[in-house]
């Protein structure tokens, strides 16, 4: 999968997950209805996150814990900055914990969606390879 498509998928998955979660919260009367500009704002934040993940993947070679921690920071920093700008730099402890939990849940959902996407592509590739091998053996 080319790099641009990968980060566009991350952006779209994140945006969709946040909007759907917000819709569920609204249906449960946990959150109030938000105006259209908020949806555009969510897309801007998810795009910044995808861009930061792109930069992380370009400059951090290790695929281990360090990269995972930096990816989580890629998510939390823009989310906190945007929340602080909206609330006038006043985050209470409970709000901070909710934002962290929500952000990590969305990160997990996006990670799962990307994993499933790669798994599906790998299965198709393996199937193609098996067909080519079977075709060669018949020849």
From TrEMBL:
The chain crosses the membrane at residues 12-32, 38-56, 68-85, 97-118. The keyword Transmembrane helix applies. Keywords: Membrane, Transmembrane, Transmembrane helix. This is DUF3021 domain-containing protein. It comes from Cellulosilyticum lentocellum (strain ATCC 49066 / DSM 5427 / NCIMB 11756 / RHM5).
């Amino acid at each position: 999968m080319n790099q641009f498509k990968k980060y566009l998928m991350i952006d779209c998955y994140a945006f969709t997950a946040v909007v759907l979660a917000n819709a569920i919260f609204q249906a449960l009367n946990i959150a109030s209805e938000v105006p259209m500009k908020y949806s555009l704002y969510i897309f801007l934040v998810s795009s910044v996150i995808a861009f930061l993940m792109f930069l992380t993947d370009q400059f951090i070679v290790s695929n281990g814990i360090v990269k995972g921690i930096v990816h989580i920071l890629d998510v939390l920093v823009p989310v906190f900055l945007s929340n602080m700008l909206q609330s006038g730099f006043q985050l209470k402890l409970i709000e901070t914990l909710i934002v962290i939990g929500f952000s990590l849940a969305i990160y997990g959902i996006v990670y799962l969606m990307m994993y499933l996407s790669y798994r599906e592509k790998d299965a198709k590739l393996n199937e193609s390879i098996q067909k080519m091998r079977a075709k060669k053996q018949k020849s």
